[in-house]
Each structure stands twice: as structure tokens, then as C-alpha cells.
Amino acid sequence: MGTRNVALVLLAAVLLQTLLPASSAEGLVRIGLKKRPIDQNSRVAERLSAEEKQRLLRGANSLGSGSEGDIIALKNYMNAQYFGEIGVGTPAQKFTVIFDTGSSNLWVPSSKCYFSIACYLHSRYKSGQSSTYKKNGKPAAIHYGTGAIAGYFSEDSVTLGDLVVKDQEFIEATKEPGLTFMVAKFDGILGLGFQEISVGNAVPVWYNMIKQGLISDPVFSFWFNRHAGEGEGGELVFGGVDPSHYKGNHTYVPVTQKGYWQFNMGDVLVDGKSTGFCKGGCAAIADSGTSLLAGPTAIITEINEKIGATGVVSQECKTVVSQYGQQILDLLLAETQPAKICSQVGLCTFDGTHGVSAGIRSVVDSGAGKSNGDLRSDPMCNACEMAVVWMQNQLAQNKTQDLILNYINQLCDRLPSPMGESSVDCASLKSMPDIAFTIGGKKFSLKPEQYILKVGEGPAAQCISGFTAMDIPPPRGPLWILGDVFMGAYHTVFDYGKLRVGFAESA
């Protein structure tokens, strides 16, 4: 991962919000959720998450035992994720966690984590301060794209709302070398998947809640509030559902493969017309740990073409050329140092050697922190730097300014979108088609305002397609991952007792 992308991950992590306290009522255990709306910079981290999901589903999550601990791929939870609070130990030590249906372990930082800065910046579990702690010591490791979390298993009580799960096996993380966790606002992860994908075959928290008779109904449900800035971010309910969070009845489909909450999905329709891609059936999972909606490249490309989406990088490049092209040319002709040009036009800051994304202080810059109130996007900075190089080459060939600008535009069209993202014109939302997914014989439609993610405000706002490509090969794939884009529109019930997943329109 390049240095600029690392900086973006750091900024995305810094922007994550803290959580709402948990509470219980009416026999249900309620965990209040809080989220940070998706922003330009955190999209990089979302792609990291998607890459890890793909690697995991391809089989990189095979479990084993050995001196280095068990291994499973971990997603990067940096983009528009939902958080809640739990307690570990007696008295309860508070931790902020992500509730993730795509993994099955609970882990939190350990007080015995001495050599990772990330641990010192988050709440750390202190076994010596808990009267219910039980030593385990079995090593464990969670590997992901840019690093790994390692530690060992311990046992203690875990508090969720008013419920206390006794003798819960969890991972004390003693190594968190990745930059991601250094500045993240969450402390750990609480997995809600099946034991089949649990590191070390540890019994998930959810299983023990049922086994210990803490809830009468072996069900949990998610409601995500997709209206940014409007009250709480959402709610996770253990033991049932809250009727105020959905309309009508749920459509249930059976779990076809335990591990993730996987089920069969039918045809995908664009504006009411069949794409034919999943007419014979496709596999899908409901995943609270994925922000977007991921599917096979062939159909995602078709969907993005139908909604008029274009590659984000190409669009940023064209924007730079149209708005700043002449200014960049003038600076080059005035023999301005090329490395300083993008900072002079306001798309980057200069760290002494080259441009970096505005608002992100480089390692070279030891001065006071800069205001982050008007951040420029890193793609714009990158596009500007590419344009400078291209224009330098063309000027060296004595090309006219008109020919140079036209040539750069052509190069923009050829740029791929490495983050798998596509952008649309925010003004064209009303003309975009509905996209529907057939589940349990019923069509679940997403309207443009539900599948388009708005980044920024006013004239500077961008609109990003909520559909991203991911190709999972057979026998596990092709596979669809219905993340927060879908679960935000449809209240989702995870029924462990009857091994089924249910969807109803969110209220």
C-alpha cells in the first residue's frame, strides 16, 4: 500500500466516531450504534476491507493450530461502520467494538501489549483487575492485508447491556503493529458469525448467550439509520426484533452454508428488467462488516453502466484537467518547480519533496497541525501529479497547449479505477433506475438515494455508486455480499434457532 493510501487510512480512522451506551428493555438487549458517514478518504479503507473479504472467501481463512496461533483474514473496518459498547471482566472494563456478522471472534487490546503504539491509544484489558478472569494462554493470530493482530486467549465475563456472559473465551491482543489500529476509534471486534470460522474454534459470544439462557429467543437483528446526522446511528437487538424498526413482514431464507450468514439469492433486476445473471440462483451473505454491496464484476459493471457511473479516477483526472489544466501549464511554462505545482493550485500540500493530500500532515512536517475543515481528496492530488508529469513530457515535445490538454483528457479516459469504485453525477439521481434483488421469491428494490453514497456537501459533493466488484471463484462463488448499503434499506434478522436470515423494509 502506497504512502498516500496509508495516510488516507489514517485519516479515515481518525474520523470514526465513538459510540452510544447499551441498554435493555422489554426483554430485549439493545445496543445503540453510532456511525460516521462515508467520506472521500475512507473509501480507500473500504477497498482494503473488500480485498480481505475476497481473500478470506477464497480460502485464506483455513484454520489450523501451531506455535504461532490460529489464522483468519480480518477486514479493515474503516468505512461507514457501526459501533457499540461492551464490558469485559468484573467489574466491567468498557470497550468500543464493531459487531460483525462476517467474523466470529471477540478480541480487545491487552494491558500486556507493550510494543505496539495502537494498544496505548485504546482501552486495554487488565486481567489483574477482574475477579472473574480465567487464564487460558492458547496463542491466536488474526491476519489482514496490512499487518496482523496477535495475542492469546483468555476467559472472562462479557457484558452486553444488562446481560453478563460468563466464562467467555476471547483474544487478548498483545501485538497491533498495523497503522490502521493505531488511530482507530474502536478498540476491538465482536464477531457474530458461526463457530465454523472462529479462530481457535472459540465459542462465539452469541452462542454462549443462548447456551447460558440469557435470552429466550435465539435471534438478533440489525437496524441501520442511513440518514447521516439524524439521531442515533442504529440499533442491534439481541433476543428478537423491535417492530418500530421495520414495515410489513420479514421474508426469510434458510442459511445454506454455516460460517457466514449465507443464503441463496435469485435474479438481479435493473429498472424491472432481468439481467439474467442470477436467474439460476446465486449465493449471497448478509454482512454488517462490509459497507458497500459487492458482486461479480460482470453484473456490477452492467449495473454501473445502467446508472451512468464512471471510474472515480477517470473523473477526478478530467476534473483536474478542466479546472486546473491551463493553470498547471502556465506554471510549467513559468519554470515553476514541478513538485510544487499541485500545492500551488491547492490540490496538495508540499512536504518539502513532493505533494501530499491536503489536510494530511506528512512525516516531514513537524509544525503545528493544520485545519482539516476543507480537506481535498487524495484522488485529486494524485490526478494533478499525473497531469504535471504528462504535461512535462508533452511540452518537451513542443506540442501546443490545446493538443496537450486534449491528449491529457484522452489519458484520463484510459485510467482504470484501482479502488473498484464508480462515480455518478449527483444531479442525475432522479433519472437512475431501481436495482432489485430477488430473495425468497420477493424483489427487494434499492432506489438511487439508497444505493448512491454522497460524499461532501454543496458544489464539491461527489456521488459514489454503492456497487463494487468482487469475483469469488467456484465452488464458494460467484457470491454477493449484501453489506450496509442493503442492510440499511432492509431491517435484517439473523435467526440462529431456525438457521435463517430475514429481510423487511426498514422503518
UniProtKB/TrEMBL annotation:
One Pfam family this sequence matches: SapB_1
InterPro entries to which the protein is assigned, alphabetical: Aspartic_peptidase_A1, Aspartic_peptidase_AS, PEPTIDASE_A1, Peptidase_aspartic_dom_sf, Phytepsin, SapB_1, SapB_2, Saposin-like
Family matches, as SMART domains: SapB
GO (cellular component) term, any one: vacuole
Disulfide bond entries: C113-C119, C278-C282
Residues forming the catalytic site: D100, D287
Listed SUPFAM superfamilies: Acid proteases, Saposin
The entry's keywords: Aspartyl protease, Disulfide bond, Glycoprotein, Hydrolase, Protease, Signal, Vacuole, Zymogen
Keyword Membrane attached: no
Origin: domain of life: Eukaryota
Entry-linked Gene3D superfamilies: Acid Proteases (2.40.70.10), Saposin-like (1.10.225.10)
Cellular localization per UniProt: Vacuole
Protein name, as recorded: Uncharacterized protein
Source organism of the structure: Urochloa decumbens
